[in-house]
Amino acid sequence: MLLTTKYVDGLPLHRFETVLSRHGIEIPRQTLARWVIQCSEHFQPLLNLMRDRLFESPFIHCDETRVQVLKEPDRDPTSQSWMWVQASGPPDRKVESPRVS
User: Fold this and answer.
1) Using an 8 Å Cβ cutoff, are 57 and 84 in contact?
2) Do residues 6 and 37 touch, judged by C-beta distance below 8 A?
3) Span 43-64, mean pLDDT?
4) Is the pLDDT of residue 66 over 80?
5) 85 has a pLDDT exceeding 90
6) pTM
7) What ranges do the domains of the chain cover?
8) CB neighbours (10 Å) of residue 17?
């Protein structure tokens, strides 16, 4: 639920912390952030396979978006950070957005 709430629903951790608190569940956002990081470590092998598959494609579509990262070691919170999104597929295949039911 944590990863779905953060990445599919786009809910920041501080707001998810408030939602949980409203239901009597007290989990600090620092703990939630640590869990997100720990999950990412478990997903790394899958991400590596996905990147390998991506680079097999003759075309790669990319998007570069600026994001704000707070409390990043040795960086000012107002400094620019970037998120890069990449996708590939056959050139004749229509691009579709994922559907959430």
Assistant:
1) no
2) no
3) 91
4) yes
5) no
6) 0.62
7) 2-88
8) 20
- pLDDT, position 101: 63
For residue 81 the two structure tokens come to 């950070």
Question: Could you identify the residue written with the tokens 């998007």?
Answer: 63
Which DSSP string do the residues of the chain spell out, in sequence order?
Answer: -HHIIIIIS---HHHHHHHHHHTT----HHHHHHHHHHHHHHHHHHHHHHHHHHHTSS-EEEEEEEE--SS-TTS-TTS-EEEEEEEE--TTSPP------
Our CA angle for 80, 86, 90, nearest 5°, is: 160
* CB proximity list for 81: less than 8 A, separation 6 or greater: 66, 67, 68, 69, 72, 75
**What are 76's two structure tokens?**
């000012």
Residue of 54, 13, 60 lying closest to 35 (CA atoms): 13
**What pLDDT does residue 32 have?**
98
Burial code (b: 16+ CB inside 10 Å, e: under 16) for 27-36 equals eeeeebbeee
More confident residue, 96 or 7: 7
